[in-house]
Amino acid sequence: MGQNTFLETVKGKLIVSCQALKDEPLHSSFIMSRMALAAKQAGAAAIRANSVVDIQAIQDEVHLPMIGLNKVDYADSPVYITPTIKEMRAVAATGAEVVACAVTGQPRPHGEKLSDIVAQMRQEFPDTLLMADTATLADVKQADQLGFDIIGTTMHGYTPETEGQNLATNDFAYLKEVLKTAQHPVIAEGKVDTPEKLKRCLALGCHAVVVGGAITRPLQIAQKFIHAIEA
Ligand SMILES: CC(=O)N[C@H](C=O)[C@@H](O)[C@H](O)[C@H](O)COP(=O)(O)O
């Protein structure tokens, strides 16, 4: 894979997701760049970020490897994480070491086929790694077959089939199945919200762990405390 050393750099480490969508209080590329700086100062090995403007603002502020994505809603598809070749290209063009996209078995916008998207990306951006944001073991198998470089558990709990499921349930029972199934390095992502859970994911054999909201979404963090009062 050319000069791409992302996998070596993040092995056994924390990747911090710095994201705030339009309807979130911290929606701002500047704020995301400062979130990334805090993550870097704490010792994070890489950043995961959404949208070209956020990725670029973060790249200017911190020089850490990047998992880039672009969330876009299309009327004809439930897939929203880097759903079409257009967003894939735009994210790869930022120089992000990894481009992440949903691999959920759901139809993509304009009838685009994931196999075509992967083939096109390999041709245009041969040094860019591809991360599959999967929800089920079937998705993991598909991602492996298509040659994705990294298997993420990002969408587990966020599709109709997996709604309400949590990666940590029953001592990460689902994650253990993913680790048995996957042929490519697994990055745990989604609701890893304590240092203990992160350690467990690494001990089980994950290559690295992405933590988002528990570090970078203060609304979500504050709500946890409020719920404790109300419970
Ligand atoms: C499902 C979906 O759209 N996940 C997104 C993917 O990039 C982000 O909103 C999450 O924050 C990220 O996956 C990290 O997860 P958590 O914030 O739970 O640590």
TrEMBL record:
The keyword Isomerase applies. CDD domains: NanE. It holds the Pfam family NanE. It catalyses: an N-acyl-D-glucosamine 6-phosphate = an N-acyl-D-mannosamine 6-phosphate. Signal peptide: none annotated. It is an enzyme of class 5 (isomerase). Pathway: Amino-sugar metabolism; N-acetylneuraminate degradation; D-fructose 6-phosphate from N-acetylneuraminate: step 3/5. Its EC number is 5.1.3.9. One of its GO terms (cellular component) is cytosol. Gene3D superfamilies: Aldolase class I (3.20.20.70). InterPro entries: Aldolase_TIM (IPR013785), NanE (IPR007260), RibuloseP-bd_barrel (IPR011060). GO terms for molecular function: N-acylglucosamine-6-phosphate 2-epimerase activity. Keywords: Carbohydrate metabolism, Isomerase. HAMAP family: ManNAc6P_epimer (MF_01235). Belongs to the NanE family. This is Putative N-acetylmannosamine-6-phosphate 2-epimerase. It comes from Loigolactobacillus rennini DSM 20253. The lineage of its organism: Bacteria, Bacillati, Bacillota, Bacilli, Lactobacillales.
